[in-house]
Amino acid sequence: MRTKLLAEAQLGGHVHAGIEENGAGEIQREIRARSAVVAAICYLSWKTAQLDFNYSISNYPRTVRDLIAEAIPWTLGLLGMTTLLSFGIGTFLARCWHGRGRRAGCDM
C-alpha cells in the first residue's frame, strides 16, 4: 500500500484506493464537505465585499447594483424625513407632557 500511495503522490493526484479500508473514508468525505462550505462562504463574502451581486432575477437585464443605486436616494430621503418628524413630534409631546402642571408647555 505504501508503494501505491507514493506512486499516486508522485503523479500529483488524489489517492482514494485503500483509504476506505482503514475507515478514513468517512473522515475524508467530512473534510471535503466542510471545505466546500468554507469555500462557498469565502466566495460569497468576496462577492459581497466587491458589491458584485450579478443580475436581478425580477428585472433580468439590470444588475442588482444598479437597482440599489436607484433606491438609495429614496431610502435616505425617507429615513431623514421620518427621523426629523419623530424628533419634532417627540419633543413637542414631551414638552406638553412635562409642562402640564407648570403652564410651560403647549396650551391644551
Keywords:
108 residues, mainly alpha, 2 domains, 3 helices, elongated
Description:
- With about 110 residues, the protein is an all-alpha fold.
- The protein folds into two domains: about 1-50, no CATH class; about 55-108.
- It is built from three helices and no strands.
- The model has no long low-confidence stretch (mean pLDDT about 75).
What's the topology here?
Layout: H1 2-11, H2 25-49, H3 64-98
> Alpha-carbon distance between the termini?
94 Å
Order of helices and strands: HHH
Overall number of domains:
2
* Helical amount: 55-70%
Question: How large is the share of residues in beta strands?
Answer: under 5%
What does the radius of gyration come to?
31 Å
Count the DSSP helices: 3
Could you describe the largest sheet, including whether it forms a barrel? none
Low-confidence stretches: none
Round the mean pLDDT to the nearest integer and report it.
77
Computed structural class: mainly alpha
Taken from the alpha-carbon principal axes, the silhouette is: elongated
Count the strands? 0
